[in-house]
Design a protein that fits this description.
The complex is a heterodimer of chains A (about 400) and B (about 170). Chain A is of the alpha+beta class and about 400 residues long. Helices cover about 40% and strands about 15% of the residues of chain A. Chain A folds into two domains: about 10-175 and about 195-225, no CATH class; about 240-385, Oxidoreductase, molybdopterin-binding domain (Sulfite Oxidase, Chain A, domain 2, Alpha-Beta Complex), CATH 3.90.420.10. Chain A has ten helices and ten strands. In chain A, the strands form two sheets. Chain A has a five-stranded mixed beta sheet with strand order 2-1-10-5-6. Helix content of chain B is about 80%, strand content about 0%. In chain B, helix 3 (about 90-110) runs antiparallel to helix 4 (about 125-160). The chains are: A alpha+beta (about 400), B mainly alpha (about 170).
Chain lengths: ~400, ~170
């Protein structure tokens, strides 16, 4: 018995497997990937700031916007990537030149770069989306893999652009569509006419990208919340109307003892009970919680300005702070507050949220809230601040 | 049309070669940097399993998603040559693609519904919401098909009555 033969490059009749289509969709995907990469890089630097970089504390909602964009461009890349791969699918069955020659070597190198690009992008989008659900069914660490794959994608993409440059230039501009004019009305028409047109394909791809975007945007833009049917988060859900990433139980923080004290160690060491903290001058900040998972929501916080606490303990100007939480283990049991964040008048040791005392899940009795920072660094259950000078 | 002089062509060609080489070299460098990051931060065990997942992503796409799209497209193309079908085929195709993509994105949400790490993760009834979304897509598709069908019939009847020049 003969096995069925593999299809060849010519076996796909649709005129949409055309370099012009690949160029146009590639352009869109290129924009989405670039925005996704740059916003992702910003988020990485927020969490692992290199010595040469100073991240400003304003605009206060910058991280909210960049991380929202990161997740949004990732989600709309799903239909864009699928459309791109569908367009170039016949290339998968193209024969490599044989016998080995310089040309064959070049072709093999190109194939390898494309295999890496496709594999890395498909997996990157997959694990990125599942991370927004906080679901990790794979046997490797998410954060490190997601970050390294991003660089591999950018590298493979640059190689891909270099290889395809002549084709991209040749197809950058509009070319006449390969369409037959529609004849007089008839009862039925051949597939060459009923088939999807190039413009129709672009419209549909843009439409699906817009649809998945609109139905997931609501996790970062509350106005779209009611229709965010494809978003893992919903605004205004949670204790005090605000979602939670890590609950007190997950963090190993139980009931806070009545003799709880907050300390700040600097040139002077100060210690306060909760009532004494409440008696200090209180300030109000309207700041968002903006999570690495892309969801974000604005809230009204009340508490003591960190700037004022620094002054009380006699810390010199330009001091940075170590924030120590009562939570057990985890990467974020302590965080560091660089000087520009510690000095920003919006940065609070918050005691109240949306008009009432913090819920235990939101960091009762006290938490840090600062402008333009990822949620994981807005340390909860704070019981000590250490001035680092 | 006048051709540009040979010298200009040649310099354009060498510029293209320079840009392409530059992209390839920088690309390989950046890619190796990423690979270095992986080697640095992943355990041996994770490094062995990651390629399996990478290959799995390619297989899922190239041997499941794209073939599925192509076979549905092929069936649709066959169906579209039937009498009258050319009027609705575009709408049916668009509807299928919208439903397919939204379903693909919804699958993880449906699988994990009610299994969020805390009550604020995955708080929706995703099954109901997904059904509503698909129903909306189908409803809009049907409306568009009806309106377009009417318009076509209207145009044809006017054309055949000789009122105006037709299409």
């Amino acid at each position: 018995m003969k096995l069925p033969e593999l299809p060849t490059e010519k076996a796909f009749p649709s005129p949409l497997h055309h370099p012009r289509v690949a160029t146009v969709i590639g352009r869109w995907l290129g924009v989405a990937v670039t925005v996704c990469f740059l916003t992702g890089l910003f988020s990485h630097f927020q969490q692992a700031t290199p010595g040469w970089l100073v991240i400003p504390s304003r605009p206060a909602s910058l991280y909210r916007v960049t991380q929202g964009l990161h997740v949004l461009t990732g989600i709309i890349s799903v239909p864009l990537l699928l459309a791109k791969l569908w367009t170039v699918y016949p290339k998968l069955f193209a024969k490599l030149p044989w016998p080995p020659s310089r040309k064959a070597l070049g072709a093999a190198f190109e194939r390898l770069s494309i295999a890496m690009l496709v594999a890395a992008m498909a997996l990157e989008l997959f694990i990125g989306f599942l991370n927004t659900l906080q679901w990790y069914p794979w046997p490797f660490p998410f954060k490190e893999t997601h970050y390294a794959l991003a660089w591999i994608i950018v590298g493979a993409l640059l190689v891909h652009l270099g290889v395809k440059l002549p084709l991209i230039i040749a197809n950058w501009r509009r070319t006449p569509a390969d369409r037959t004019p529609v004849p007089e009305p008839a009862e039925s028409l051949p597939p060459a006419i009923t088939g999807l047109s190039r413009r129709g394909l672009f419209r549909t791809v843009a439409g699906t990208a817009a649809l998945v975007g609109v139905t997931s945007l609501g996790q970062s833009v509350s106005a779209f919340g009611p229709i965010a049917v494809l978003a893992p988060r919903k605004p205004n859900v949670g204790p005090q109307g605000l979602p939670v990433n890590r609950t007190a139980r997950d963090a190993g923080v139980a009931i806070v003892a009545p003799d709880w004290r907050f300390t700040i160690t600097g040139p002077e060491q100060l210690s306060y009970s909760l009532d004494e903290l409440r008696a200090l001058p209180q300030s109000r900040s309207d700041l968002p919680i903006a999570c690495v998972e892309g969801w974000s929501q604005g809230a009204r916080w009340e508490g003591i300005r960190v700037k004022d606490l620094l002054k009380l303990c006699g810390a010199p100007e330009g001091s940075s702070l170590r924030v120590v939480s009562m939570e057990k283990g985890g990467f974020y049991a302590t965080s560091e507050l660089p000087p520009q964040f510690a000095e920003d008048p919006l940065t609070l040791l918050a005691l109240r949220l949306n008009g009432t005392d913090l819920d235990l899940d939101h960091g009762f009795p006290a938490r840090i809230i600062a402008p333009n920072r990822p949620g994981v660094l807005q340390t909860k259950w704070v019981h000590r601040l250490e001035v680092l000078t | 049309m006048t051709k540009p002089p040979i010298g200009q062509l040649r310099s354009r060609l060498s510029a293209t070669i320079a840009v392409r080489t530059g992209l390839a070299v920088v690309g390989v460098g950046v890619g190796l940097w990423g690979l270095g990051l992986l080697l640095q931060s992943l355990s041996v065990d994770a490094l062995i399993r990651l390629p399996l997942w990478l290959a799995g992503a390619v297989i899922a796409n190239d041997f499941f998603l794209v073939p599925l799209t192509i076979s549905v497209g092929w069936m649709l193309a066959r169906w579209s040559i039937g009498p009258g079908h050319h009027r609705t085929v575009t709408t049916v195709r668009t509807m299928l693609l919208y439903a397919g993509i939204t379903t693909l994105v919804a699958i993880p949400l449906l699988l994990r519904q009610g299994k969020g790490v805390n009550p604020t993760v995955l708080p929706r009834n995703y099954l109901r919401d997904w059904l509503l979304l698909e129903a909306t897509i189908v409803l809009v598709g049907v409306l568009v098909a009806v309106v377009q069908g009417r318009r076509l019939t209207f145009r044809r009847s006017r054309a055949s009555s000789g009122d105006i020049g037709g299409r």
